Amino acid sequence: MTQEPLASSRTARTRLRREEIVTTAARTFADRGYAHVGMRDIADAVGIRGASLYHHFAAKEEILYAVCLTVTREPCEENLPLLDAAGTPARRTAMLVRAHLRHLYRRRVEHLVGLHEMASLSPEHRAEIDGHRRYYQRRVRDVITAGMRSGEFTVPDAQLATFGVLDMLNGFSGWFRDDRGLSLDDVVEGYVELVVGRMLGARGALD
Amino acid sequence: MTQEPLASSRTARTRLRREEIVTTAARTFADRGYAHVGMRDIADAVGIRGASLYHHFAAKEEILYAVCLTVTREPCEENLPLLDAAGTPARRTAMLVRAHLRHLYRRRVEHLVGLHEMASLSPEHRAEIDGHRRYYQRRVRDVITAGMRSGEFTVPDAQLATFGVLDMLNGFSGWFRDDRGLSLDDVVEGYVELVVGRMLGARGALD
DNA sequence: CCATCCGCCTAACCGCGGTTAGGCTTTCGC
DNA sequence: GCGAAAGCCTAACCGCGGTTAGGCGGATGG
């Protein structure tokens, strides 16, 4: 009877170590910028030597790639299903906005990195990350279009509204602080009101 | 009243050369990322040798600093005076949104650099750039607050609305393309409607 | 018309940092 | 238990790229 049956497996511990490195590296990247962080810096923060990182990642860029994956694949897997749930487009959009902001909060360090350091990815990796982002954007545009057809949303152009909404939401991780100003819940509900209720024009459809 | 007779003045030509280097460097930074661009790359694009750049700038970071200055100081000098003009807060805000987007367009290359490469600035330079940004943000928040007092704007929280508006606007330079989709004028007037008319709630106050 | 400085050059430096080589200890699966 | 891999170590490499040194021609302004 092992205490941690799952975490004791060799592959599972390896994966945990990888995730620890990715999380630690993301924090360092966010603080000082990808280019100004050396492999030895990441290793120090984890508690090992620089060269030992190469037992987990083939290159520094692979670590950045892992960070970027968590902020583009996770939202696709966790948030987008909300758009397939039952309910009006306005309600489904509001659910997505909430999930989107909460993911930006939960992974705010990784999001800061993912938004600025895209240029340091290899062309193939960047193409994949871009694909996720574009897919997410397309799904949001589709629900906005659906809301326009159902009459709940009254924006002049679905594509323009999509850009506006996503840029406004994604900016959140750049300025939010836990220790001052509005609380997370304040921001989430305030943004639902500003975005879905006002910008998209579904004021009555949410209550 | 000293008037520049021609570009033949020694100091004037020096300044033009500097601006040419900054513009060229900004384009290269935007394409490949600051860290992946060498002094020799910038020099090649200008048509001189790498070491010759040091007759115009003391360090690579000074070039980045010059790029960042044009996208934070220029909006303060050119856009903010519109907030001091006559008119209701709603109209003044609409004017600012238009000027802001047109500046993002005119300097879109520099804005792309300024938004992601902040981490490569020296602490002093970053502090100055941050200061300009914060001042701009404060002025926008002030006009939104004024609009709330005058009753034109009905947002729940001025600070939250400020973040939302500026993040939405600044995202523009990241996705706009001249050769496809909406025209610049379409975006400008569409965003005025979405931001001032809908998000801030001044639908009637603009006509 | 001349002294001067500007602008650019060639050549080289040199330190940082990503990466590799190779070996030791520990630990897990069988 | 035992072989084998995982995981980490020390040591060193080495190329890239920011930066410096020092010189040359030609425009400039007095």
From TrEMBL, chains A, B:
Q: Which residues bind DNA?
A: 38-57
Ranges for domain HTH tetR-type come to: 15-75
| Pfam family name, one | TetR_C_24
Q: Which SUPFAM superfamilies match?
A: Homeodomain-like, Tetracyclin repressor-like, C-terminal domain
PROSITE patterns according to UniProt: HTH_TETR_2
Does the record bear Transcription regulation in its keywords? yes
- Source species: Pseudonocardia halophobica
- Keywords for the protein's UniProt record, in alphabetical order: DNA-binding, Transcription, Transcription regulation
Annotated Gene Ontology MF terms? DNA-binding transcription factor activity; transcription cis-regulatory region binding
Q: Which PANTHER family match?
A: HTH-TYPE TRANSCRIPTIONAL REGULATOR BETI, HTH-TYPE TRANSCRIPTIONAL REGULATOR RUTR
Range of residues in the leader sequence: none
Please give the InterPro entries that the UniProt record associates with this protein.
Homeodomain-like_sf (IPR009057), HTH-type_TetR-like_transc_reg (IPR050109), HTH_TetR (IPR001647), KstR2_TetR_C (IPR041490), Tet_transcr_reg_TetR-rel_C_sf (IPR036271)
Question: Highest taxon of the source?
Answer: Bacteria
This one is known as TetR family transcriptional regulator
